[in-house]
Write a structure and sequence with these properties.
Blueprint: E1 3-8, H1 15-19, E2 25-27, H2 34-42, E3 48-53, E4 60-73, E5 97-112, H3 113-117, E6 136-139, H4 141-149
Parallel strand pairs: 1-3
Antiparallel strand pairs: 1-6, 2-5, 3-4, 4-5
This protein binds a DNA duplex (12 and 12 nucleotides) through loops.
Length: 152
DNA sequence: GCCAACGTTGGC
DNA sequence: GCCAACGTTGGC
């Protein structure tokens, strides 16, 4: 089992939006970066991930999600009306994939980026690296466990 | 709102 | 296949 981090701008899709979705489950559509896509293709049902708010006043990990459906073609790439439309992608050879995630647990309060930065245990964590723009990231088990220990 | 860091594009 | 130019991300 692996651990991940799903990054989203709350303006676009927030933790609350996820909780209000049917069965607290959402399609992680719109990823248009090859590295992030490849990570999603590695995901297995039952893998867990942090749900992270970026590009907002208080960037923070809001909670934990579970991968409930493994990678399948992101249909927004075929929809000319969608802003995620990709004219170079075909049904036969889809270029972009997505997974489904379900809310499992909420952190109260959320674990802010400022809080995370205080801990030497989290040095080297991808999320905290400057300039890292991937919307889907792997999280090392040691970092995962440490962060969980912050909210028993 | 600024700007550093990064991925992508396209000319050659 | 290199790399400059460009657009975007995202912390601050």
């Amino acid at each position: 089992m692996k651990y991940w981090l799903f990054k989203t701008e709350p303006n676009t899709f927030s933790w609350t939006d996820l909780l209000e979705s049917p069965r607290k489950t959402a399609e992680w559509d719109g990823v248009r970066n090859y590295q992030a896509r490849n990570f999603m293709m590695e995901m297995k049902k039952g893998d867990l991930g942090f749900f992270y708010h970026s590009a907002t006043k208080i960037p923070a990990i809001m909670g934990i999600v579970e991968v409930v459906k493994e990678a399948y073609p992101d249909y927004t790439q075929f929809d000319p009306q969608s802003k995620y439309f990709d004219e170079k992608s075909t049904q036969e050879k889809p270029r972009w994939f997505m997974v489904d995630v379900k809310a499992k647990r909420e952190f109260t309060p959320p674990i802010t980026r400022d809080e995370l930065k205080k801990f030497p245990q989290l040095e080297g964590m991808l999320l905290l690296k400057k300039g890292l723009r991937l919307s889907v990231l792997p999280v090392e088990k040691k970092h995962w466990d440490f962060i969980l220990s912050l909210r028993k």
